Write the structure tokens for this entry.
Amino acid sequence: MAGDEETFEMTEEQITVVRDVFDNYVGEDVYLSVKKLGDIMKDLGYNLKKQQIRSLMETCDADGSGTLDFDEFLPLVAHEMKKKEDEKFYFNLFRILDKKKRGWIGVNDMRYILEGMSKELELTTEEIDDMITDIDEDGNGQVSFQEFLTLMTSE
């Protein structure tokens, strides 16, 4: 989190809301445990699996205490907000590309899109073929939104 190249700028109002929610959860403790982290993230609208919560805790726990203080917690929330904003952007893009409104894009259409972007992205035909193979995880010839999102957000 601390090393993210892109940071999500939170407004003062957003920070205040996050602070209020954080204070409500920690009470006198001033620290979040793993359990409380899961609860607070759920209340903030992020449904994360236990393993994701543990991973977030390990990533954000700068002092290795096994708990998070507010200064460790705030960047985590900003990171999750950025991910949610990105997902919304890619969902809207997917809807535009899904011209027939079927809920999926054919792999041939996806190939055409990637080929159109190949010069900008510096992709070879072989790399595009590999991407198509990787993106169509279930091999049904259709790229679902989740498969599209995975492709667009992978490094």
Summary: The mean pLDDT is 85.
